[in-house]
TrEMBL record:
Methyltransferase type domain boundaries: 43-134
Species, as recorded: Amycolatopsis tucumanensis
Gene3D superfamilies: Vaccinia Virus protein VP39
Protein known as: Methyltransferase type 11 domain-containing protein
Length: 236
């Protein structure tokens, strides 16, 4: 389901953002600061169309991207990429200085065991002293309030405006939810894409990061980091 969601969305993914090039730049700058401000060899293990990977490369990092979606990867220019599941990364041990898994990618994995497997793989491919950077939605709040929708976002382009919004359908367990992502295009045609997430709390995620072998986990709020979601960093 996740691969199909992103393969179908790939051609229009940039329209989720009001201004995608500006988002690439801002996110790259924020992640660069979280990486200590010096160039590193970085794996973006859920790179999509390259929003974070391209921003990091512009900051001087050597970036490799992987993603479950070949359709999304086909849109990433000028970076080495490979189609791969984050639970089975196609790299030798101790290959990277940092692993980035941003923009709520990890919660596509719907069980603690699958999240643990992915985090263990991220730990494996990091060198000693390497850094993990994860970002998710603020799921502590979502688990309390169970929102039914997201506010619309508007992408401005020469051909007109694209409006994107989501409807959320919570499972009976109160932890997982199905998403219908709507995009209304300038000609008023509409596409709907569906997928599922686990609204993993900070405590649940931090426990799994610990189990995977990381140390020193720390949360960074958007107002502190400049990134648009809460970020968890940890070290090998």
């Amino acid at each position: 389901m996740t691969r199909r969601f992103y393969d179908r969305l790939a051609a229009d993914y940039h329209r989720i953002y009001a201004d995608w090039p500006s988002s690439v730049r801002r996110q790259g700058e924020a992640l660069h600061r979280l990486l200590g401000g010096s160039p590193r060899r970085v794996l973006d293990c859920a790179c999509g169309i390259g929003t974070q990977a391209l921003g990091l490369a512009a900051q001087g990092h050597e970036v490799v991207g992987t993603d479950l979606s070949p359709g999304a990867l086909a849109r990433v220019p000028d970076l080495p990429v490979a189609a791969a599941d984050m639970r089975a990364l196609p790299f030798p041990d101790a290959t990277f200085d940092a692993v980035v898994c941003a923009d709520n990618s990890l919660p596509h994995l719907l069980t603690p065991e699958d999240v643990r497997r992915a985090l263990t793989e991220m730990h494996r491919v990091l060198r000693r002293g390497g850094r993990l950077i994860l970002s998710t939605r603020d799921y502590d709040e979502a688990r309390r309030t169970h929102p039914a929708a997201t506010p619309p976002s508007v992408h401005e382009a020469p051909d007109g405006r694209t409006i994107t919004f989501q409807l959320w359908h919570w499972h009976p367990d109160g932890e997982r939810y199905d998403v219908e992502l709507f995009q209304v295009f300038p000609n008023l045609t509409t596409k709907v894409h569906t997928t599922t997430y686990w609204a993993i709390t900070r405590a649940e995620l931090q426990d799994l990061v610990d189990v995977a072998g990381f140390s020193g986990p720390m949360w960074h709020e958007p107002e502190e980091s400049g990134f648009f979601q809460p970020v968890l960093t940890a070290e090998t």
